[in-house]
Amino acid sequence: MAASARYLAGIAKVMGMEILVADPFVTISDIAIQHVPLDDLLARADYVVCLAIANEQTENLIGQRALARMQPHAFFINLSRGNLVDEAALAEALCENRIAGAALDVGRALDQMPTPELAKLSNVIATPHVGGLTPQAIEHQSAETVRQVAAIIDGKVPGGAVNINSWTRRPLAKDTS
């Protein structure tokens, strides 16, 4: 699980919440966390928090079909990337009260902000893509940038590289003088 997901799971455990995770790329070792298929998570969860990585496979991950699996009292929270959500399907589910509400820090508008069409709905809480602007997040992003640049200088693929098939960087020649 990503660091943000582990942090959120820790908070949820303290609050006595049942924690469900649907991530095909992670192994869960904490007995308080249930690893379930996405369809099961959507059908059972009171709060669905989207923290998936954005790529071709996750484009519109939360669309009409996924939203139809959610319970009418459930809330959808997107803290990841706007392109993970079919916003038309989300707006429809919210307007028809098929889900209780949504909280969005990201969306498909400029600068990854939630769109005005979603933000204006009475059952939506929208923030202007500021979730990553905490001092801890800024410090982590800065340190991660330094680690990635150091890897590139050493001729290594930096962690989290999404263009690995295009990797052409070679190590810099060492100054032997």
Written description of the protein model:
The chain has 177 residues and is α/β, with parallel strands linked by helices. It folds into 2 domains: 3-126, Rossmann fold, CATH 3.40.50.720; 135-166, no CATH class. It is 32% helix and 12% strand. The protein has 6 helices and 6 strands. It has helices at 3-14, 38-44, 64-69, 87-95, 116-119, 135-153; strands spanning 19-21, 33-35, 47-50, 75-78, 101-104, 124-126. The strands form 2 sheets. It has a 4-stranded parallel sheet, with no helix packed on it. Strands 1-2 form a two-stranded parallel sheet. Helix 4 links the parallel strand 4 (75-78) and strand 5 (101-104). The protein is globular. The protein starts with a helix and ends in a 24-residue tail after the last helix. The relative contact order is 0.09.
